[in-house]
Amino acid sequence: MVELGLRAHGVVAGYDRRAPIVRDASLLIAPGEAVGMSGPSGCGKSTLARVLALLQVPYGGRVSLDGEFVTRWRFAAPRAMRTRVGVLFQQPRVSVDPRMRLHEVIAEPLRAGGRSVEVADRVPELAAEVGLTDELLARRPHQVSDGQLQRACLARALVLRPRYLVCDEMTSMLDASTTAALVGVVERYRASTGAGLLAVSHDPPLLRRWCDRVVEYPG
Amino acid sequence: MTAMASMDVGSLLVDRLTVRFRLPTAEVCAVEQVSFGLVAGECLALVGESGCGKSVLAAALLGLLPANALVGGRAVLGGGGDEAVQLIGAPERTLARTVRGRRIGLVPQSPAARLTPVRTVRSQLEETVRELLCPERALVGRIAERVAARAAYPVDHLDRYPHQLSGGLAQRAAVALALVGDPWLIIADEPTTGLDRALVERTADELRRLADAGHAVLLVTHDLVAAERIADRVAVMYAGRIVEETSAEVFFGAAGPRHPYARGLLAALPEREFVPIPGMPPELSALPAGCAFAARCEFATKACVRVPDFVAGLACHHPRGDDRG
């Protein structure tokens, strides 16, 4: 039987093999489920999120995506796997190429995946969803606020219609209204597609409001 | 507090402060006719969405605006045993030698990025001590350690470099640096951004302790949770103007603020309705003619084509909660 979901089985990961930050972490994000992960800064929750987003090779343990074990990571991960997980980070400023206009930022995953034909439909649709006007889409990152840039990053994360979203402190730089707006976009997307979510945050009230269940990390 | 009492312990009076930036193609109205007062022992939270002009206001008080800024209005820092000084337009020499670090301390946003990466915290603290206090050489080290302790920075971590500090420690190092000259006014610019809840509370509480010790604290933030924890008064800024100023008790209490924008900000909190304010703030280079919030306001009418006057702590044509008198 194929188990659907994004799962960590006893993952060990970190930045020094002798002293891994993540030790024996297990977690399942089922399709359609919103899992919150909270914990103090420096506890390894972002590292585990990076492993689950296929961005970091774990030292031990396994990650499976809809029943299939992940064997290759980062750029080496097969496209069909890589594009199944969308990622959003805390700092939009360091997550975009400063030379690209917001329109190109959002369209980049389509272009990189040889799906440029979809750009004309998909980018305006997502821009409207996250609240970016044409005028803002024509600007470069230094010409917009953190909140506006994070809106573009969210649109970029959704452009390939991922089945799982990993949001690592997506809103911790943002004000309350922008936070509520972006969480609203994620939730509308999940309601229409049934995508699973891992939301990492050090704001427990936010996670309790947003997610089906919240796990303390390290548990 | 009476005027007499505030004279004794110091005060900051900002009167119709306006800051614009002249760009080749546009004029950015970052701060428009902002007035408020602050006395010793008080913490005023200046809240608003990013890009509303809050940080520019803080930079204007410190004389740290870029050369293309046009500044109007007054900001008088007075009392506290020192001669009153008009900060706006004061000569750089005055600001550098008597104001910055000595009468106004700045706790910057993302302190880890503001510390010099190639020098230890001790070395940076000692330099500041030498510069601001000019003590005998033998005393420098001891004073630096005492200031670190005041900011709850652990003395055994003084010999670390900025990259070896956690976010919380870097924050406390920044507070320690701001405290060296024992400034009367502490301006904290988004001191809690990116910190986890426990550190937010700790940083906020440190600022509260400073206010309780007789300093005045201007907390510039979009973090309403931190503001609720420590502020005595809350001023809400939108598109460069203060649209409402009220006591923290009223703002966070059952009555709540009266400006629809301030109410919307509160309603967006996950602890409350978690509903965003529709739309985004206007560009400060292309402000609408009337009330800048009208486009996002469900109560807007024809009256809103005119900018509302700031009367009795509120600038709105259609304040909410009128029924409570």
What is the N-to-C order of secondary-structure elements of chain A (H for helix, E for strand)? EEEHEEHEHHHHEHEHE
- Give the strand order, joined by hyphens, for the main sheet of chain B: 6-7-8-3-9-10
The biggest beta sheet of chain B, please?
6 strands, mixed
**Which class do the helix and strand fractions of chain A yield?**
alpha/beta
Straight-line distance between termini of chain A? 28 Å
What value does the average pLDDT of chain A take? 93
The low-pLDDT segments of chain A are none
**How would you name the oligomeric state of the polypeptide chains in this document?**
heterodimer
- What share of the residues of chain A does DSSP label as strand, in percent? 15-25%
What spatial order of strands do you see in the largest sheet of chain A? 6-7-8-3-9
Rough outline of chain B: globular
Q: Give me the count of strands of chain B.
A: 10
Q: Which class of secondary structure composition applies to the elements of chain B?
A: alpha/beta
What share of residues are in beta strands of chain B?
Answer: 15-25%
Mean pLDDT of chain B: 90
Radius of gyration of chain A: 17 Å
Fold topology:
The complex is a heterodimer of chains A (219) and B (325).
Chain A: E1 6-13, E2 22-29, E3 34-38, H1 45-52, E4 60-65, E5 68-69, H2 79-82, E6 85-88, H3 102-112, H4 119-130, H5 134-137, H6 146-158, E7 164-168, H7 176-193, E8 196-200, H8 204-210, E9 213-216
Parallel strand pairs in A: 3-8, 3-9, 6-7, 7-8
Antiparallel strand pairs in A: 1-2, 1-4, 4-5
Chain B: H1 3-9, E1 11-22, E2 27-39, E3 43-47, H2 54-61, E4 69-79, E5 82-86, H3 92-99, E6 104-107, H4 111-114, H5 121-133, H6 137-150, H7 167-179, E7 185-189, H8 197-212, E8 216-221, H9 224-230, E9 233-238, E10 241-247, H10 248-252, H11 260-267
Helix pairs in contact in B: 5-6, 6-7, 8-9
Give a verbal description of the structure.
- The complex is a heterodimer of chains A (219) and B (325).
- With 219 residues, chain A is an alpha/beta fold.
- Chain A is built from eight helices and nine strands.
- A five-stranded parallel beta sheet of chain A has the order 6-7-8-3-9, with helices on both faces. Chain A has a four-stranded antiparallel beta sheet with strand order 2-1-4-5.
- Chain B is of the alpha/beta class and 325 residues long.
- Helices cover 32% and strands 23% of the residues of chain B.
- Chain B is globular.
- Classes of the chains: A alpha/beta (219), B alpha/beta (325).
- The interface between A and B is medium-sized, with 30 and 29 residues.
